[in-house]
Design a protein that fits this description.
The complex is a heterodimer of chains A (about 270) and B (about 290). Chain A is of the alpha+beta class and about 270 residues long. Chain A has 8 helices and 11 strands. Chain A has helices spanning about 5-20, 35-40, 50-60, 85-95, 125-140, 150-160, 165-170, 180-210, and strands at about 5, 40-50, 65-70, 75-85, 95-100, 105-110, 175, 220-230, 235-245, 250-255, 265. The model of chain A is unreliable at about 1-30 and about 260-265 (pLDDT under 50). Mean pLDDT of chain B is about 80; it is low at about 1-35 and about 285-290. Chain B is extended and about 70 Å long. With about 290 residues, chain B is of the alpha+beta class. In chain B, helix 8 packs antiparallel against helix 9. Classes of the chains: A alpha+beta (about 270), B alpha+beta (about 290). At the A-B interface, helix 1, helix 3, strand 3, strand 6 and helix 5 of A face strand 2, strand 4, helix 4, helix 5 and helix 6 of B. Strand 7 of chain A pairs antiparallel with strand 8 of chain B.
Chain lengths: ~270, ~290
């Protein structure tokens, strides 16, 4: 069985759904306690690593500093003079971090990801835990239902409509939920859960399985089709990386990692 | 059962004591812990560790306080940069908990463990976004733009989305572009590092270099996160559910072109449309499914 995610459809869906709600305003992480505005610093550092800068700045500020992860930028130079807050802003900005204070006054630095090359920490055990937990959350929200039942539920709902209800629908009118029977509401709600949760459940199932199978996986480059330059007519073979792993059910699975979408080959993966 | 879950369950069974410093850090002047553990955590510590891991921080705290401090197995390798001196251990722990939204549990007197917060159990669709946020590490949430406003449009497409009141589509689109770029970078690096003469030869993970393993892990994760953001999971992540996903009482059914759709009419100042899901009605052949 081949399943290819409908990329454009999914995007369109996001656009529609995305139009509905507003994001919360950006939280301003850089709080401004007055002590940081009163404290003046002269801070110089030449070709210092993030950890070295943190140590030196902590000493200058007489404050503890804790940062999550390490930045992509290996070294930086600083010749700063200003309030502690201004210095903190500049240092955090240079390493693509944002800062806030703990209740006890420790400076907390976390990545802000404005640099497109910056990425979160990827520790395999933590990622495996994340994928399992996300799967559990989505399965619980699904009421424990099996995946890929939505279309059948919609069909069952249509079959459950009375002749009068069908006539209303076939006349091009809407049938409000208030005119559904209890059984029809149940079918429609179950279909909604499936339509909303099946795709993310499948994705997290794949990620969980891929990460579990990583230590015994393999990769293979395979040519698959070619592109042609419209101006020169020159053809270039398209090569994809195939990731192959064994799931807990013992079956081998393959994913194409193309950078523009995964094509899942072989049978659908059962939830772990 | 995963080991970490076993740990969490055991913690629950013994009567988990969430120390007050778990959320946001213990402030000076807060009610002092009453247990012997709490008293030991009042010890002034020196954590001049530089680039380190949570496991190493926990060990340093254990050594200096006499309290057995440990991290959940899946958090042990979490990289940190820590430079804290002249603080009590509970203040230092509070800062670390606040940094990543972790929690502390006292498993028995003199033993505490650092974990992620308990996994929420969503009972409705509208509770799923918060539950998903809770299971994602804080830096991954930030990376995926959860809770981030779109800001100024960066191109024609984004200006158009803003003009028709659909600016919330901008963040997922930007994230997808970012993850695609990162996946491509990882794959290019993997290809460039492949030294074998036969480029099409199957390579077991065990034969990959540490850097290649990182490349592969990043490619896998960003590939799937990109899909998650652009799939119907995106609205779940960004809490941009359509009205019927929040309140099913507003639903109505429509039938057109052989397709039964269930949804509701949505209008804002600019556009009006029927946000729905549904399927083609058929009894004798596979049906095509759409999703909200």
């Amino acid at each position: 069985m081949h399943l290819k995610f409908a990329w454009s459809q999914a995007c369109a869906v996001c656009l529609v759904a995305g139009a509905i709600c507003q994001f919360a305003p950006v939280a301003v992480a850089q709080t401004a306690p007055s002590a940081l505005d009163r404290q003046r610093l002269v801070f110089h550092a030449q070709q210092q690593s993030f950890a070295q800068v943190v140590a030196a700045l902590s000493l200058e500020m007489k404050r503890g500093i804790a940062a999550d992860g390490v930045p992509r930028l290996l070294q930086a130079d600083f010749n700063l003079e200003g309030t502690a807050r201004e210095v903190l802003d500049r240092v955090a900005d240079a390493f693509d971090y944002q800062w806030t204070l703990s209740r006890s006054g420790v400076v907390l630095l976390s990545k802000r990801f404005q640099n497109p090359d910056e990425r979160p920490q990827l520790n395999l055990p933590e990622l495996q835990q994340m994928a399992r937990d996300a799967n559990t959350v989505l399965r619980q929200a699904s009421g424990g239902r099996a995946m890929n039942q939505t279309a059948q539920l919609i069909n069952a709902l249509f079959d459950a409509f009375s002749p009068e209800q069908r006539q209303i629908l076939q006349d091009g009118k809407s049938l409000p939920i208030g005119q559904f029977t209890a059984a029809q509401v149940q079918l429609a709600q179950a279909a909604l859960l499936g339509a909303t949760l099946d795709s993310p459940r499948q994705l997290w199932t794949y990620l969980a399985s891929q990460l579990t199978g990583l230590p015994r996986s393999s990769i293979q480059w395979k040519a698959n089709g070619q592109t042609q330059d419209l101006l020169t007519g020159q053809s270039t073979p398209l090569t994809f990386l195939y990731y192959q792993w064994q799931a807990r059910n013992g079956l081998e699975y393959t994913t194409v990692l193309s950078g523009s979408g995964a094509i899942f080959v072989l049978p659908m993966l059962p939830e772990e | 059962m995963p080991r970490c879950n076993r740990v969490c369950n055991r913690l629950c069974l013994v009567g988990v004591i969430g120390l007050t410093l778990a959320r946001g850090g213990a402030a000076s002047g807060q009610t002092a812990p009453t247990s012997k553990t709490g008293a030991r955590l009042a010890t002034i510590v020196r954590l001049a560790l530089g680039e380190t891991t949570l496991a190493e921080v926990a060990k340093a705290l254990s050594d200096q306080t006499g309290v057995s401090v440990s991290a959940a197995p899946y958090l042990r390798e979490r990289k940190l940069v820590v430079q804290m001196e002249n603080l009590s251990a509970d203040q230092a722990l509070g800062a670390l908990m606040a940094l990543n939204g972790w929690q502390l549990y006292e498993t028995q007197e003199g033993a505490i463990v650092i974990t992620r917060p308990p996994r929420p159990t969503p009972l409705t669709l509208s509770e799923v976004p918060a539950a998903l946020h809770a299971v994602l590490p804080r830096d991954i949430q930030q990376f995926l733009g959860v809770g981030i406003a779109a800001g100024m449009p960066k191109n024609v497409w984004e200006r158009r989305m803003q003009a028709i009141g659909m600016s919330q589509a901008v963040i997922p689109r930007r994230i997808v572009e970012k993850t695609e770029r990162l996946v491509k970078t990882q794959l290019d690096e993997l290809a460039a590092e492949q030294k074998t003469a036969d480029k099409t030869k199957k390579i077991p993970y065990a034969k990959l270099t540490p850097r290649q393993r990182e490349n592969l892990l990043e490619a896998l994760v960003f590939n799937d996160l990109g899909f998650f953001v652009s799939s119907p999971g995106g609205p779940l992540l960004y809490d941009t559910l359509i009205p019927i996903q929040r309140d099913f009482s507003v639903a109505e059914a429509r039938f057109q072109g052989g397709m039964l759709s269930i949804g509701s009419t949505v209008a804002n100042t600019q556009v009006k449309f029927f946000a729905s899901f549904g399927a083609h009605i058929s009894s004798d052949k596979p049906v095509k499914q759409t999703t909200p």
